Amino acid sequence: MKKVLFALLGTSPSVLTETIWALSREDPAVIPDRVVALTTTIGRESVIQALLSGKTTGWQRLLKTLERDGHNLESKLRFGDTSESIRLFPSPCGTYDLEDIATSAHNDAAADFIMRELRGFTENPETSVLASIAGGRKTMSALLMSCMSLLGRRQDRVLHVLVNSPYDTPVEPQFLFPEKGVKYKTRTGESIAVRPEIELIDVPFVRMRGWYEDSFKSDPHSYERLVAGVQ
Prior knowledge:
Elements: E1 2-8, H1 14-24, E2 34-39, H2 41-51, H3 58-68, E3 86-88, H4 104-122, E4 127-132, H5 138-151, E5 157-163, E6 171-172, E7 185-186, E8 198-202, H6 209-213, H7 223-228
Helix pairs in contact: 4-5
């Protein structure tokens, strides 16, 4: 069964690498086949700068670390600066991509977008969705959690990730995942002695998919109608 990491991202793309690193530490290890990030135009620039830029990118360092740890990454962790991997929230009118989710209209458009994108994966019985609610605005996390309750199946998971202090705040160099030999400092230049620790949390959620499937002959085209269908 193919595994898709379906993640919300704001301006802290490290939640993506932290989640993947933590999944690789599970027993048995979970290595997503594909990574899909939903974000804004500003979030996309943050992803490119933090993970996809430089001589050796943060993404490449993650892959090399996982390979050194013994993981076979052949046909795994497909991700890059493409519209297939980085999905941008559209405006309410659909004519441009959003820089931020700043209004109720933006919120409604984002809810519909999350629902449509998520449904594209949950309609495939051979795909398992790993939905990360760690990034983006709190309202976006709440919407993805709600969409997972409405669309999620037994093989799907909702994930959150926690990082110990001070790695949950800006440090130098930017913390993406525990890298051997890297010495971190605070923004004021103080050396950090504590080792980074990442905790992956499986968030329980109520699966209501069967309820609305009995209510609609075809899938509703909006998040609002989908929610109304289970009331």
